Amino acid sequence: MENTKIISKITTKNYRNLVNEDGIALNNLNILIGSNGSGKSNLVGILEFLKNCLTPTSDLDSRGITAFQNALSKLGYNILDAYIDKPATVDLIFKFPYLHSSSGMEFNLSLFIDKSTVFINDETLINLNHDTKSELLFYYRSHLNTLGRASVFIKSEKSERYSLTELEEIPTNELSLIAIPKILIEKGILSPEQIPLYKASRDLEDTVKKWQFYNANEMDLAKIRGERPKVGSSDVILAKSGENLPAVLDNISNHIKYGLDFDERINNAMKDILPMTKRIKTSREGMSLTVRWYFDGMEEPFYLNDMSDGTVRMLCWATILYSPILPTLLVIDEPELSLHIAWMGILANWIKHASQKTQIIISTHSPDLLDYFTDCAGDVICFEKTQPKGHFKAQKLPEAIIKDKIAEGWQLGDLYRTGDDVIGGWPW
Questions:
Q1: Which of 47, 53, 221, 388 is deepest in the core (most CB within 10 A)?
Q2: pLDDT (tens digit, 9 = 90+) per residue, 111-129?
Q3: What is the pLDDT of residues 219-254, one digit of tens each?
Q4: CB 316 within 8 A of CB 216
Q5: Peptide bond preceding 388: is omega within 30 degrees of 0, i.e. cis?
Q6: Which region holds residue 64: left if phi is over 0, alpha if psi is between -120 and 50, else beta?
Q7: What burial class does residue 62 get, using C-beta atoms within 10 Å of its C-beta: 0-12 exposed, 13-18 middle, 19+ buried?
Q8: Closest-CA residue to 127 (of 141, 148, 106)
Q9: What are phi and psi of 309, to 5 degrees?
Q10: Which of 14, 143, 16, 35 lies closest to 75, judged by CA?
């Protein structure tokens, strides 16, 4: 399988209920299982936090806050392990092994937590494959010994060696990854050849901004059925609520490069779940778009209002997973919601297919869906309770034991249903 990994490891310390100081290794495909409250959403939350930190919205200036502060408010301020006294730090490490001309980088972020404040007290972007000759060990490091101060590697104009430049007035309420390039530009240090941080930060930002997060519970079926997007919308990415579904289908279907192939894939996918499907197509009704669903032997089309909840959800998942414009990381929470058991294998195949083109994280409580990932047991991450406190550790399934169980005829969902200790995922 082609390597689609963007992020290969996440490490946390003192973060909520996760015991994860050794890090969680991620594959192309990752299936998260565990009881409610075991930390699956907490893990996904820090990925979405990083995206929000690097994706400022247009209203932030008028609100007088930074993207970091906005991201923190969405994540929640109670991010410190409840058993640790304040003040303390929450440490997050994200490893990107193939970014920036395949040299790889690691982003370290330490947040100082007091009774009434949260701010950045250490931040580093590390060059994983540093050149020992030129000694580019990291791109920058900020706030380590003195808040507001940063060290940045800049290449000499007269040689190939790098030296550290000290900067002052680095904010603690905004990622230095964003702030430092702006400060360097203000100082007139503009050459990307001299400052590897410019390209490294741009590569990281461009990649993380393309991450997409979906939660089946947030899919608004009433809006999906009732919204009529205006003709002329440029949407090619499905919204979290799914309400722009007609616009996304229409824009990709009419794309000169992707249209025919996407149309064929979507129609074949829907025939997998409803074999009598003849064709799905968008249509213009005045200045609005709608979706028409045609069946064999029926002259009049059906509309999304006529289709079941599960059918509409499957169309949304197919639109996301078969899109030719995939995000660099795709995260879906509980995709099995309201789906018939007979469709679980179909959904699993769609997910596996998409993981060959982008990195995917799926969180599920469904043993019926898990059955169809038995051939991907090495991609399952189980959140197991650690004693005596209510902490959970995310870890891969024990390969040797799982292999023996599968050889005996067990499927992963069977082990999950019976509460087998080897797969965990149970609250007791």
A1: 53
A2: 999 988 999 999 999 998 7
A3: 999 999 988 888 888 999 999 999 999 999 999 999
A4: no
A5: yes
A6: left
A7: exposed
A8: 106
A9: -60, -45
A10: 16
